[in-house]
Design a protein that fits this description.
The complex is a heterodimer of chains A (313) and B (287).
Chain A (H helix, E strand, L loop, with lengths): L2 H22 L18 H34 L17 H8 L1 H34 L5 H13 L2 H15 L5 H10 L2 H14 L2 H9 L4 H30 L2 H7 L6 H11 L2 H33 L5
Chain B lengths: L2 H22 L8 H6 L13 H7 L2 H34 L3 H10 L7 H11 L5 H8 L12 H25 L3 H9 L4 H12 L1 H16 L3 H6 L7 H11 L3 H36 L1
Helix pairs in contact in B: 1-14, 3-14, 4-5, 4-8, 4-11, 6-8, 8-11, 9-10, 11-14, 13-14
The chains are: A mainly alpha (313), B mainly alpha (287).
């Protein structure tokens, strides 16, 4: 982990910090950060100032982060709403009716819910073994492969889809179900490999060895020991894959049109050609699966699993 | 076991990319024949290679402005995301109050929202009849500029989309710093800024590099945010690539742009790989 190395350099850093403190003391403003323990009484005033600054920051963050979503949500229920009114004059559900009565939009919703599970399942089957191999075996070319996985992520998606489209024409995959599945699958490979690989790496080898010592075969070890321990991370990876597929718009647009128009692809046309409420309603519908699934995965994503997956080892 | 995903990548990414590179260099045979038979304004050679397609697009003044727009937006977004996520993560690391918890919850909201929706919501929010203009109007700023369909709106949108990843990465990096290190330094009289500078900063270099590189690469290759929220021109290279492909029917030029962005992204990616290899080697020495 390199923690010890850090610790040593840190020790030096801390020491030098302490040594030079005599010179610096008083020169530096005390605790620019709030809630530092053991502050002098003088800092109480400053503490209040910090609190106010904190509240101002929170309000800005609230407006910046939630504002657009809330504003859009209002639109979904608004009737006549003219600038510069702060809120709509009257409320209506006509946008909702319009969405659910439009066969095109209904069809795209169904399609989205067909593609996403298929892509997630395919991605899991293809990538999980690789994730395990990356974490457990040191084979020649391992680092090269990890880095090329990363490189696929660095290639601009739209450029990639354009070059894929060229090849898809030759393979007769344009406008087919399989073509769309492949395009969406590409976007999930990195999640499905990196996050589970980090999870497998976090499981102590000794656990697996112990199971093997008492006579368990390799498959049994995997399914009784390794897999259950890595399951939360795998679930996170699957959820991220599901959402990546569900939200994928550019590639599906390029490959699937006109036969397979999923919800996010429909958004491109919706924004331009439909009344604003319809687009707003559709946005809310499209956001529901993300919100629900991310709420499930929240604890694990926040718990640093996402971060672990991004360290190349 | 590694074979299936590697094969998928090789067939559906590696192969197209190689074909795309060949195509931009003037080779229209094999997998490129279908695209080449449809495209216009192509520079094709039968033998050897030609850089005419690159010359053609890189001498295009519109592309110059797009390129600069892309570079500037990328730099600004990366700097802001790194700074804001550092600040938020640091605050979360050092305090545990309702304020901190609210900030933490707010900063990951974009994770829950598909990018298409986010772009649309941001466009509407900053549009000529959007919230910002409305509030400005009521506060007396009647001539407040409309941000919708400007590069500023693109920048704001990209920041919005990239903040959660930044905060999560930085938080997990800072949470890895043991409490007793900070306490030891505080006990010996180090001020908080000093602790940040001498302990937290050096121990959080890798997450910072990861956030910066991934954000920059994401912005360079992004399409949806600039397409929905940005101006017609100059816009980022993502939408202009799509324009060359769909509207102008010049696939070769679109591919050239893709390669240009890829090279830029690879340059940034090299920093990420270098930083990882460096720590990898360091930890290799340990064990």
């Amino acid at each position: 982990m390199g923690k010890r190395a850090h610790g040593q350099t840190l020790g030096v850093a801390v020491m030098s910090a302490i040594e030079s403190e005599g010179v610096v003391l008083g020169g530096l403003p005390e605790a620019q950060l709030p809630a530092a323990p053991l502050r002098p009484r003088r800092a109480v005033v400053r503490g209040a100032a910090h609190r106010i600054a904190g509240v101002v920051f929170i309000v800005c963050l609230l407006v910046f982060m939630i504002g657009p979503i809330a504003w859009l949500a209002l639109r979904a229920f608004s009737g006549l709403w003219q600038y510069p009114q702060l809120y709509p004059k009257d409320w209506t559900l006509s946008g909702w009716r319009q969405v659910f009565n439009d066969p095109n939009l209904r069809h795209s919703m169904r399609l989205s819910f067909e593609f996403a599970p298929i892509v997630t399942a395919a991605s899991t089957v293809i990538c999980l073994p690789a994730a395990y191999a990356f974490s457990r075996y040191r084979f020649p070319g391992r680092r090269f492969l990890l880095i090329s996985l990363f490189a696929t992520n660095a290639f601009p998606k739209i450029g990639l889809y354009i070059s894929m489209a060229g090849v898809f024409y030759s393979l007769n995959l344009m406008g087919t179900f399989l073509g769309v599945v492949i395009v969406q699958l590409i976007g999930t490979v990195v999640f499905m490999t990196w996050i589970p690989a980090a999870a497998f790496s976090a499981i102590p080898r000794s656990l697996e060895e112990a199971a093997r010592d008492v006579g368990a075969g390799p498959l049994r070890v995997f399914f009784r020991v390794t897999f259950p321990l890595a399951a939360p991370a795998i679930l996170v990876a699957m959820i991220l894959s599901f959402l990546a597929s569900f939200d994928e718009a550019q590639g599906t647009f390029l490959v699937g049109v006109p036969n397979y128009i999923t919800m996010p692809t429909e958004m491109y046309t919706l924004v331009l050609n439909y009344p604003e409420q319809v687009a707003a309603v559709f946005s809310i519908l499209l956001a529901i699966p993300s919100v629900v699934l991310m709420a499930f995965a929240r604890k694990h994503v926040m718990g640093g699993r996402l971060a672990e997956g991004f360290q190349l080892r | 076991m590694v074979l299936p995903p590697v094969a998928v990548i090789a067939v559906f990414i590696g192969f197209p990319v190689v074909a795309a590179i060949a195509y931009t260099l003037g080779r229209a045979g094999g997998p490129n024949s279908v695209v080449a038979s449809l495209g216009q304004r192509q520079f094709i050679v039968q033998k050897g290679v030609t850089f005419d397609a690159y010359r053609d697009i890189l001498s295009n003044p519109t592309i110059h402005r797009d390129l600069w727009a892309t570079v500037w937006v990328t730099i600004v977004v990366t700097l802001v995301v790194v700074a804001v996520s550092w600040a938020i993560a640091l605050y979360l690391r050092l305090t545990d109050s309702w304020l901190a918890r609210t900030i933490s919850a707010l900063s990951v909201v974009p994770l829950f929202i598909p990018v298409v929706i986010a772009s649309y919501a941001i466009l509407v929010f900053y549009a000529s009849d959007g919230f910002i203009k409305t509030v400005a109007y009521h506060l007396g700023f009647h001539g407040f500029p409309t941000l919708g369909y400007t590069l500023t709106c693109v920048t704001l949108g990209e920041i919005w989309v990239n903040i959660p990843f930044g905060v999560l990465m930085m938080s997990s990096g800072l949470n890895g710093v043991p409490n007793n290190l900070i306490e030891a330094a505080r006990d010996s009289g180090a001020t908080m800024p000093r602790v940040v500078r001498s302990i937290l900063l050096p121990m959080n270099v890798i997450p910072t590099v990861i956030v910066a590189t991934f954000t920059a690469i994401y912005v360079l290759g992004s399409f949806t945010v600039p397409y929905l929220t940005g101006p017609t021109a100059p816009n980022l290279l993502g939408p202009s690539m799509a324009n060359f492909f769909n509207s102008f029917n010049q696939p070769q030029q679109a591919e050239v742009l893709a390669i240009v962005v890829f090279v830029l992204a690879l340059g940034i990616g090299a920093v990420y790989v270098w930083a990882n290899v460096r720590t990898g080697r360091r930890s290799g020495l340990q064990s």
